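Inverse folding, one chain.
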């Protein structure tokens, strides 16, 4: 399975478990698969940042960011993917 597919599956797991909590319109608390909470800030559709090591040190989109993107898409369209 590709890295992008893995990330999407992990994001779906977070969403299914109710791990995405909107604190306010541009700040989320995401409980990862490890049980740890991460802070996700939404500056714009193209600029979403997470406090996890993958996002901060590796500069890669993590599954926490993917989960928030999917959550926001569901909010805008009314269509849940999980």
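Residues assigned per position:
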């Amino acid at each position: 399975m590709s890295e992008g597919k893995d990330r999407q599956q992990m994001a779906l797991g977070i969403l299914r478990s109710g791990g995405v909590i909107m604190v306010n319109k541009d700040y989320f608390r995401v409980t990862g698969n490890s049980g740890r909470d991460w802070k996700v800030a939404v500056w714009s559709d193209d600029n979403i940042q997470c406090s996890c090591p993958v996002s901060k040190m590796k500069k890669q989109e993590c599954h926490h960011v993917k989960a928030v993107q999917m959550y926001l898409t569901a909010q805008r369209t009314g269509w849940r993917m999980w």
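Residues 3-75 form one domain. The mean pLDDT is 92.
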